[in-house]
């Protein structure tokens, strides 16, 4: 008879939703013919069953830990640092200090630990974007959807970055931020202005968000979690 982890494995992935069934199989081999958790507790004692269930929970926590590393890039004042703070704490502040160079922050969401590289968007820092985007789980490109004067620059910088061979195939999440502002672009217009449909060499996703109002922030977090990498 294998371990609890082995018995609860399905296609190489631990499936602790079947832990109760696994427990029944184990105890059945010990002579217990009971079929319910209540009867199992009567057979071998509540303490033993509780310990086994607790072990399963610990194993689940160990084996399902996820991690991801991603880079947040975009022009200055796009709202990258605000996005990091909203994801990490749910808080928003109008008085954000522009990122000089880069900042790194770790955020934990459930079993997923996200390492966020917040890269400066001023022209003198854009040359280092590629270096910090290599081998990440995803690239997150943040754009001020209400800043029409800089949309063409933002588009040009994005497509130039994606042309780098070292970044081939890395999933891309483009966020049109500040949709709370009057006159902000619709999603359709934003995607057209950014030329997103022409990007065909990788997975591309686009959401319109507001860090100020937390619009679609949960959706962004869900996307990030789904693109995390297993540590086991």
TrEMBL record:
<keyword id="KW-0498">Mitosis</keyword>
<comment type="function">
    <text>May play a role in lysosome motility. May play a role in chromosome segregation.</text>
</comment>
<dbReference type="InterPro" id="IPR044154">
    <property type="entry name" value="Arl8a/8b"/>
</dbReference>
<dbReference type="InterPro" id="IPR005225">
    <property type="entry name" value="Small_GTP-bd"/>
</dbReference>
<keyword id="KW-0479">Metal-binding</keyword>
<dbReference type="GO" id="GO:0046872">
    <property type="term" value="F:metal ion binding"/>
</dbReference>
<keyword id="KW-0342">GTP-binding</keyword>
<dbReference type="GO" id="GO:0005525">
    <property type="term" value="F:GTP binding"/>
</dbReference>
<dbReference type="Pfam" id="PF00025">
    <property type="entry name" value="Arf"/>
</dbReference>
<keyword id="KW-0460">Magnesium</keyword>
<dbReference type="GO" id="GO:0007059">
    <property type="term" value="P:chromosome segregation"/>
</dbReference>
<dbReference type="GO" id="GO:0003924">
    <property type="term" value="F:GTPase activity"/>
</dbReference>
<keyword id="KW-0132">Cell division</keyword>
<feature type="binding site">
    <location>
        <begin position="74"/>
        <end position="81"/>
    </location>
    <ligand>
        <name>GTP</name>
    </ligand>
</feature>
<keyword id="KW-0458">Lysosome</keyword>
<dbReference type="GO" id="GO:0031902">
    <property type="term" value="C:late endosome membrane"/>
</dbReference>
<dbReference type="InterPro" id="IPR006689">
    <property type="entry name" value="Small_GTPase_ARF/SAR"/>
</dbReference>
<feature type="binding site">
    <location>
        <position position="99"/>
    </location>
    <ligand>
        <name>Mg(2+)</name>
    </ligand>
</feature>
<dbReference type="GO" id="GO:0005765">
    <property type="term" value="C:lysosomal membrane"/>
</dbReference>
<dbReference type="GO" id="GO:0015031">
    <property type="term" value="P:protein transport"/>
</dbReference>
<keyword id="KW-0967">Endosome</keyword>
<dbReference type="GO" id="GO:0051301">
    <property type="term" value="P:cell division"/>
</dbReference>
<feature type="binding site">
    <location>
        <begin position="177"/>
        <end position="180"/>
    </location>
    <ligand>
        <name>GTP</name>
    </ligand>
</feature>
<feature type="binding site">
    <location>
        <position position="81"/>
    </location>
    <ligand>
        <name>Mg(2+)</name>
    </ligand>
</feature>
<comment type="subunit">
    <text>Interacts with tubulin.</text>
</comment>
<keyword id="KW-0131">Cell cycle</keyword>
<keyword id="KW-0159">Chromosome partition</keyword>
<keyword id="KW-0547">Nucleotide-binding</keyword>
<comment type="similarity">
    <text>Belongs to the small GTPase superfamily. Arf family.</text>
</comment>
<dbReference type="GO" id="GO:0051607">
    <property type="term" value="P:defense response to virus"/>
</dbReference>
<dbReference type="GO" id="GO:0005819">
    <property type="term" value="C:spindle"/>
</dbReference>
<feature type="binding site">
    <location>
        <position position="121"/>
    </location>
    <ligand>
        <name>GTP</name>
    </ligand>
</feature>
<protein>
    <submittedName>
        <fullName>Uncharacterized protein</fullName>
    </submittedName>
</protein>
């Amino acid at each position: 008879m294998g371990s609890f982890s082995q018995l609860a494995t399905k296609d190489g992935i631990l499936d602790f939703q079947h832990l109760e069934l696994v427990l029944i199989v184990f105890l059945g081999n010990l002579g217990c013919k009971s079929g319910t958790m209540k009867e199992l507790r009567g057979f071998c004692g509540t303490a033993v069953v509780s310990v086994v269930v607790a072990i399963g929970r610990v194993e689940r926590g160990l084996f399902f830990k996820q991690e991801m590393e991603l880079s947040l890039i975009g022009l200055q004042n796009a709202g990258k640092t605000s996005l990091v703070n909203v994801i990490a704490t749910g808080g928003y502040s109008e008085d954000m200090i522009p990122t000089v160079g880069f900042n790194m922050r770790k955020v934990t969401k459930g079993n997923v630990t996200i390492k966020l590289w917040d890269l400066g968007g001023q022209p003198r820092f854009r040359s280092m974007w590629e270096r910090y985007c290599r081998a990440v789980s995803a690239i997150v490109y943040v754009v001020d959807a209400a800043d029409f004067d800089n949309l063409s620059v933002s588009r040009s910088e994005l497509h130039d970055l994606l042309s780098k061979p070292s970044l081939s195939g890395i999933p891309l999440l483009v966020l049109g931020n500040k949709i709370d502002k009057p006159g902000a672009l619709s999603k359709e217009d934003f995607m057209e202005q950014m030329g997103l449909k022409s990007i065909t060499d990788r997975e591309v996703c686009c959401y319109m968000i507001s860090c100020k109002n937390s619009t679609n922030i949960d959706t962004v977090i869900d996307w990030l979690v789904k693109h995390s990498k297993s540590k086991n």
